[in-house]
Design goal:
2 domains; five-stranded parallel beta sheet; 14 strands; Rossmann fold; alpha/beta
């Protein structure tokens, strides 16, 4: 580690000005992050590639200096450990040398003697072996040191956070919701979005314009990430956007990250398995059907699916059961992290396919609902083959997702019967319908939980 490496990422030491952040749009997660600026906690921001973690980190740094305007620009250290072509973890000595140079050559003080608030923003920290031990040492030695860290691999950040018990706050930056997408493309569409279950139940009907539905469906197809939203805004071809999603997000996670962090050797199998996840998103994952396609044992398949989850590619939803042991053993539904993955990975995917669009819509609904701090399940009766997509037992709420223009209460007899039996409220997500006096319904595009 050379001093020149530090200056490369920290030109503000010489100019006296913080780097101009070209991204003025703030993700919803920023509000939660901003509340931690005055705290001692180490902040970790994790999530999929291309979700905007580095931008969010820069915005956090800007807010830090707004809250503490008296500190100088040298009290900020920025550095990234992203090494595109390196499949090996960096030794922890890299991080040790970086911090040693910063404190002794730039601040010219011992870490224990630092008497000014200082923020250290490290990007892709999971690329450093045993990073948590180094960070912990500096955190414990002086309360003026604030760390804000980003990383793409949930495993490394989660394991690190466990060894930083009581010292870190961990945040996950998700794919865009529809409200964030509209802000990024600078759309005039501004309906009354529901950011919570209470908001959802209070929404009153209004006339839905065709352009709103068209914009929402474009979002489902391409708009899961800030870059893809801007690509679509600037008239990039949809096939090119889907190629970008495959090559710059999905393939880099599977071909590079899984090799590097999980020692996966045969990534071709993982590509095939993830394609199945995209095709089957919102369905129950039958592991026995994956075995012939992948040539893997059931144990190996479970391991690979858990790695997908740790890498933020997929999430799972269990059937509700009062007996925890049965719930754990039950077959789970699988959902990919963004509907746009389904379009990018499954040939001939189209919103014109009425059956498939239901899977796309339910995938979006799940990814919004799971971000709420509530226990979420699929509700499936023991005797009946029918199911209800989402169940919040504590909130006493059942939710069905049917992306159609007309919601007929007569077709939801099972939902109404289960709601009566369980003593819950119920709601149906539709394409643009508000239901009737017998069944509450609202358009899915209004669900945007951040």
């Amino acid at each position: 580690m050379e001093l020149a490496d530090l200056f490369f990422y920290n030109s503000h030491w010489q100019t006296g000005d913080l780097p101009k952040n070209p991204h003025s749009i703030k993700r919803k997660l920023f509000k939660k992050l901003a509340q931690t600026i005055g705290d001692r906690y180490i902040i970790t921001i994790q999530g999929l590639r291309r979700t905007g973690k580095s931008v969010l980190q820069s915005q956090y740094v800007d807010a830090f200096f707004e809250q503490f305007p008296e500190i100088s620009q040298t009290q900020l250290l920025k550095y990234t450990f992203e090494k595109e072509d390196d499949l090996d973890l960096l030794p922890s000595q890299e991080l040790i040398d970086l911090l040693h140079l910063y404190f002794h050559r730039i601040l010219q003080t011992q870490p224990a003697l630092l008497n000014k608030k200082t923020i250290i923003a490290l990007d892709e920290i999971q690329n450093v072996d045993n990073w948590q031990s180094v960070i912990k040492k500096y955190y414990d030695i002086n309360e003026n040191i604030k760390f804000v860290l980003t990383g793409s691999s949930s495993l490394y950040l989660k394991e690190g956070a466990e060894s930083l018990a009581g010292r870190s706050l961990d945040f996950e930056l998700e794919c865009l919701d529809f409200q964030e997408y509209l802000a990024i493309i600078d759309s005039p569409i501004k309906p009354p979005f529901a950011e919570s279950l209470d908001d959802l139940l209070k929404i009153t009907p209004f006339d839905v314009e065709d352009n709103t539905i068209k914009t929402f469906e474009n979002f489902l197809c391409v708009g899961g990430f800030p870059e893809t939203a801007l690509m679509f805004k600037t008239n990039h071809n949809i096939k090119d956007i889907h190629r970008f999603i495959r090559e710059s997000i999905i393939n880099k996670v599977i071909k590079r990250d899984l090799k590097k962090y999980f020692q996966i050797k045969n990534t071709i199998v993982d590509q095939r398995m993830f394609q199945v996840c995209c095709k089957e998103s919102s369905g129950f994952m039958e592991l026995s059907k994956l075995a012939p396609e992948t040539g893997l044992s059931l144990v190996s398949i479970k391991k690979h699916l858990e790695i997908f989850k740790k890498s933020h590619l997929v999430h799972f939803l269990s059937k509700f059961d009062k007996k925890i042991r049965r719930e754990i053993k039950s077959t789970r539904k699988v959902y990919v992290a963004s509907p746009c993955f389904m379009f990018a990975m499954v040939p001939d995917t189209s919103l014109e396919n009425r059956e498939y669009v239901g899977h796309v819509a339910e995938t979006y609904a799940f990814n919004q609902l799971r971000k709420l701090e509530e226990n979420l399940y699929v509700e499936k009766g023991k005797e009946s083959r029918e199911e209800i997509d989402f169940y919040f037992p504590e909130k006493k709420l059942l939710i069905e997702c049917k992306y159609t223009q007309i919601i007929d209460a007569r077709k939801f007899a099972y939902l109404l019967a289960r709601a009566q039996a369980l003593g819950t409220q119920n709601i149906v997500f539709s394409k643009n319908s508000w239901g009737d006096v017998h069944l509450k319904s609202c358009p899915l595009f209004l669900l945007a939980t951040g």
